[in-house]
Amino acid sequence: MEFLGTLFVSLAILVMILLLATAAQRLLGVRFGALRTFLAAMVAWGLAQPMLTPVIASFGPVDPDTTPDAGALGLLLLIAMCMVLIPMVILVLAEALVPPGSVPGPLEVLRSLRGRLRRARRYSQITRIAFRHGLGPYLRGRGESLEDRSGKVRLARSLREALDDGGVTFVKLGQVLSTRRDLLPAEFIDELGRLQDHVAPAPWERVEPVLAAGLGGPVEEVFAAFDRTPLAAASIGQAHTARLHTGENVVVKVRRPDIERVVAQDLDIVRRLAATLESRTRWGRALGLRDLAEGFATAIREELDFRVEAANMAAVAASGSGGVTYPEPFPALCSEQVLVMRRLSGGPVTAATSEQGPALARDLLDCLLRQILVEGVFHADPHPGNLMLLDDGTLGLLDFGSVGRLDGSVRSALQRFLLAMNRQDPLGVTDALLEVVPRPEEIDEAALERALGQFMARHLGPGMDSVQMFTDLFKIVSEYGLSIPPEVAAVFRALATLEGTLVRLSPGFNLIGEARAFAGRYLAERAGPESVKEAVGQELAALLPMLRRLPRRVERIASAAEHGRFSLNVRLLADDRDRRYVTGLVHQVLLTVLGATAGLMAVLLLGIEGGPIVVGTTSLYQLLGYNLLVIASIMVLRVLALIFRRPRDQDRHRD
Questions:
Q1: Is residue 127 part of a domain?
Q2: Residue-wise over 544-583: b if at least 16 C-beta within 10 A, else e?
Q3: Rounded to an integer, what distance in angstroms lies between the CA atom of residue 350 and that of residue 384?
Q4: Is 182 a residue of the active site?
């Protein structure tokens, strides 16, 4: 019997705590976590007796033998509201001091601890690499002055060697930085451009399980022959030659074992460093390091997924650029870890003769410019290692892990930029450039136009240096506060890499002249009868529905104006989201006004002396004042809960 009594009391207390939690959350009008609300109600239940006993005693002695009247009911209402008020205060304080999600759960703490340990080991390894290559003083901010060129060269060499030792992620980061002439001095660009992505191949014992998992079966069942000695090896994967059962010779590219975990860890470090620098430094915010890091991470993740490379290969091959051949993927055999493609027959492009070089260079330039300006999908890393001289004397383009994509608006702006450069039109170049890059709020367009005009006068002549041309163009972009988007930076990276490749193919190759010749040919193609006819047809097809409705609309407007019925109707707050926002603001204002009014009335009532005694020694005015004071507190807490919650909700919507 005693056990049943204890159980009944425990259940009653649990029900009361749940009622307190429900009432507190409903009155605050904000959804809290179930655990947080229940704990607040439990704490409130424990605090209720020691906190409310002095309050009840202040009303004076109450005769238990008398019949409860309105005063006793008022006191009971006050006690009930005070009990609900306690968990509300706890929840609002917790919302302000310990926002939801700021204190992780046990599993999150364990995972975070493991991640911190892994990051700490990697940080330690990276720090040792940096100190080994002489970067320690610069990390502490005590490095030598970089005003002279020799100091810049030494630091650039040390940085390149440290990135090379850091592994695949940092090698790729250095390669990306080597294209950002708007961010780094020329000494760093030249040195980082020497970063190589060649490493020792992984042993067959570790590669074979990755192949079997990616192919969905043993290597011997999928291929009629397979060479276990790698044809080539890089930091992300290595390539093997093989033959299918149907007789086709193929190249099998397999991802290095466990590389995804290492890259994910390094990318996490890069993102954290970028976020820290952007939040703590002015130059980090100006460069938008957080967005740059996210774009870099996205590009690396795409390179790790060979299905993306197979799709890139098919997309570039669909452009059908003449003079260049692409390997054909076998989609049925491609997976995230394995890429199988047809093997091209030929040798290194450096084997081209001096007679073949100019034609090959011209074909490669024409191919890449068409990919960039016409197709919008282009090979972003056309260095000599990704080129082959095929047996038929044409070029083969390999390795589509790094591919750039441009939408129609960017391609159109780049086309206008190139055509205006060909005409040496500073106004047209300025307008096209401001469409390619994000337009700053304040810019001196006249000064930018003059700078671009001087730039073209210096560089658009015979025998000019295309590398210096890119450097000067980036200087102009930087001086006028223009920020180059990652996809456009990939275009300049590809063109800068292409320039070195073209010189290797054909020493003395005039990149500027040939690019202007391409612009002339492209302009001629666009100005041809068929192209003009097609463009006019497309524009008319888009305008035809509007042109058919235009006469009727003009007639209606003229008729309404003639009969005095022409009016303009503007609907404010037509969007439901705007209405909800305004309604929420009005509710908060009303709650604040009502809470302040109730509090003021409570103070006035508590200050009135006399009046009928209703409970103990407490008058009716005082009892009403106490109740109004609790009601005012509830309203104020509701407003505060909404205020503390709303900024995080807005941040979440922005994310």
A1: yes
A2: eeeeeeeeeeeeeeeeeeeeeeeeeeeeeeeeeeeeeeee
A3: 8
A4: no
Query: Residue 114 falls within a domain, yes or no?
Result: yes
- Let me know whether 73 and 165 are in one domain: no
Q: Which of 382, 373, 381 is nearest to 299 (CA)?
A: 381
- Residue 532 placed within a domain: no
Task: Identify whether the C-beta of residue 225 lies closer than 8 Å to the C-beta of residue 242.
Answer: yes
Q: Which two tokens stand for residue 193?
A: 């451009």
User: What spatial distance separates the first Cα and last Cα of the chain, rounded to whole Å?
Assistant: 58
> Consecutive 10-residue runs of the chain (655 residues): their mean pLDDT?
75 86 84 83 85 75 60 80 87 79 63 73 82 73 59 82 82 73 71 70 89 89 91 85 92 88 84 80 68 79 86 76 82 91 87 85 88 83 84 86 82 84 85 82 84 84 62 78 78 78 81 76 64 65 75 81 73 73 84 88 85 78 86 87 65 42
* Residue range of the domain that includes 82: 2-61+68-97
Instruction: Please check whether residue 205 lies inside any domain of the structure.
Output: no
Residues 6+ apart with CB under 8 A from 354: none
* Torsion region of 573: left, alpha or beta (phi above 0 gives left; psi -120 to 50 gives alpha): left
pLDDT, residue 223, reads 92
Residue 249 β-bridge partners: 243
> Catalytic: which of 381, 425, 472, 651?
381
Integer Cα distance of 158 and 134 in angstroms = 7
405: part of which helix (H) or strand (E)? strand 403-405
Is there a single domain that holds both residue 452 and residue 485?
yes
Indicate the residue type of 234.
A
Q: Is the pTM above the cut of 0.70?
A: no
93 and 110 housed in the same domain? no
Q: Are residues 118 and 185 in the same domain?
A: yes
Q: Do 454 and 362 fall within a single domain?
A: yes
Phi, psi of 223 (to 5 degrees): -115, 145
Q: Which one of 78, 97, 116 terminates a domain? A: 97
- Look at residue 591 and give its three-state secondary structure: helix
Number of domains making up the chain: 4
Task: Give the single-character DSSP code of 44.
Answer: H
- Do 503 and 356 sit in the same domain of this protein? yes
